[in-house]
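Complex record, two chains
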Amino acid sequence: MNSIILSIGDELTLGQNIDTNSAWLSRQLAAAGCDVLAHLTVPDNQRSIEQAIYECGNRTDFLIITGGIGPTADDLTRQALSVVMRQELVLDDLWLKRLEDFFKSRNRDMPESNKIQAMIPMGATLIDNVNGTAAGIDATLTFDLPVPGHAPRKHTCRVFVMPGVPKEMMAMFTRDVLPPIAKAASGAIILSKSLHTFGVGESHIAEKLGDLMNRGKNPSVGTTVSAGIVTLRINSRFPTREEAQKNLNQTVAACRAAVGDLIYGDDDQTLQQAVADLLKQFGKTIATAESCTGGLLAKMLTDTAGSSNYFQTGFITYANEAKYQRLGISMEVINLNGAVSEIVAAAMATNAKRLAKTDYALSITGIAGPDGGSEAKPVGTVFISLAHESGVTTKQFHFPGDRDWVRDRSAKMALTMLRYYLLGKPTPF
Amino acid sequence: MNSIILSIGDELTLGQNIDTNSAWLSRQLAAAGCDVLAHLTVPDNQRSIEQAIYECGNRTDFLIITGGIGPTADDLTRQALSVVMRQELVLDDLWLKRLEDFFKSRNRDMPESNKIQAMIPMGATLIDNVNGTAAGIDATLTFDLPVPGHAPRKHTCRVFVMPGVPKEMMAMFTRDVLPPIAKAASGAIILSKSLHTFGVGESHIAEKLGDLMNRGKNPSVGTTVSAGIVTLRINSRFPTREEAQKNLNQTVAACRAAVGDLIYGDDDQTLQQAVADLLKQFGKTIATAESCTGGLLAKMLTDTAGSSNYFQTGFITYANEAKYQRLGISMEVINLNGAVSEIVAAAMATNAKRLAKTDYALSITGIAGPDGGSEAKPVGTVFISLAHESGVTTKQFHFPGDRDWVRDRSAKMALTMLRYYLLGKPTPF
């Protein structure tokens, strides 16, 4: 069983709204064992909608349409469906009554334009909308698909039309659309798991995964990158939930074995959450001393509830003078080595740890750009130090990208250095 | 001139990621006078991608493709394009060199799998990627479209393939894809302007706008909300760029008159950029003292290049002890009033200003949640102080939402208080 999701609306093709419905619907359909072949979005133009319904309908089992069933002149989905079905629109007396009652209960007269919302193509069925005036439509399209050298093949596609308003759509889909699809779907269930890594590039992760990423494997393993986080996405597709879960677990275990400690968490877990969990687990405290990141690292360390367990204070020493005043680093050392140097980074972490009386301290000093770079220290040069029980460890990095990127990667790398230290493992970079 | 936007990726059709690229691209294309006929999304399946390229290509002037050009086995867009073009993939020596240099500069060997990123269909042109290893592809498809009773009609479609990573895609589109499209596009021009506000709700802004928001107006005015920022979107659609620009300017001026100082910037301008500009304009410096926001305010103040002009240091005093140690606020005052109180907020700002020797200081202390709330001071209670030439101004707020929201709104409100102070105006909240 497969499906196509068709979204209707000028606000989408003009880019004024981001389509969130299709992603939500895709997750529901996948979990019910119904493949999503495509998402398609077309504007409020009747010919475009007709063409989309026709072309999608003849290649899928279920066509899920959202939008274009409001009361205004630019709502044209029901008219387009009626043309493709070659069935005229007829008035549903019960829904007309519901509409009139709806307006009466708000002490308003029903605008004449709203009457269109009680009309559906003959032969279609109306779907109740418990949250609004736009009823849904449940219809069946039949096609004679040409087969070279043979008689045409009959194809039927069940079409569900729902409102574009997410809340109304979700309620309608869950109550009246998903059950018949789940029943018809031949049982194949898709279960998914995401594993997140930080520290090396996508191609290095792919090399570690090797054959696990081969095309056509089930469960399948793919990678995506977002803000430096390389995520493994594992999708397991089997006739029963038990098989899907068992195979998912096996492949997740194989991925974990292949990629190792670079994986910091799964699904909704963030890097800062993973580090917070380790700090709490070991009962350790941390302070920060930041130059180019300007507070971002401390912000990330306090993103999670309960961060007061391990974080009490941070130093933002953006200017050289502040590194002296706040952290007691002599101006001589700064002027001799430059503020962006191993020795200053190490002093920032060491002094922050001593002043804050914590178990650890992380420091970051670098050139975030766009200005301030030199041949010896180009934009993206960053020193990160971790002061710990037995001294201080400093690493130099060269992060690509613009100011935002350099700051973001620097803070994530600092968290990752701390994470490896807490795990008792050497960093792989 | 028209276009179709084609997005490639299992993570999209499985609903694991929301497609934000298509909306962004649509806005750019509309502004250039290029109609968007549809958005289409298909999974990482070579046959599906081939079919999508073929079917979209034969009905549009420009096919804008994002995704599927990474180095891994599930990146299949270049292979699919090569099949539709009937041109084999050939190695681009210059880009291979760029890739090798990229890895060399990071002291890493280039994985063999990355070599595919230097291959494009013969006859296509490579598009530079200044932010990553995935070069884009610029190609032309030609079709013989059947015309009943006549000779086939020649149709050509220019195809641009770009990375799916938004930042890389946006940079590539702006630099190398949009210019040829804008040149070719003719006809109705849509020019847009966004005006951003912070401090009051969407319905308050709508009330101030009044008739300007009426349906059917051209230019049209709508509002959207994102992360507390209420944005006015003004779209002006006219046959010529001059008319579109003139009418846009008039409506923008009317909106500015109606909404006033709540508007802090337009289009890509951020609240922190607006505040930075004012600080630089007046030659003033600022320090921060943060409790619940944990560094977020300082991070925002240093988001913009050149922030060293006005920002030197910040105090993150998350724990009470840190408020005493770092800012010299007596434990007696803290214990008597609570860390989340007007007096502690005022002391944080006053002492930060004195210690940092700045013109101003902003402080934030509040209950971000989910824990720590009480009946007298529920989650979302936040005190923000601004220390200035003539003393200190403190305001109490109650922000709705979860931890992230409360922290985000607190930092934005602190920036907004400073903004109104620098403008010499009283705050409207």
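Note: Chain A touches chain B through 90 residues (CB under 8 Å).
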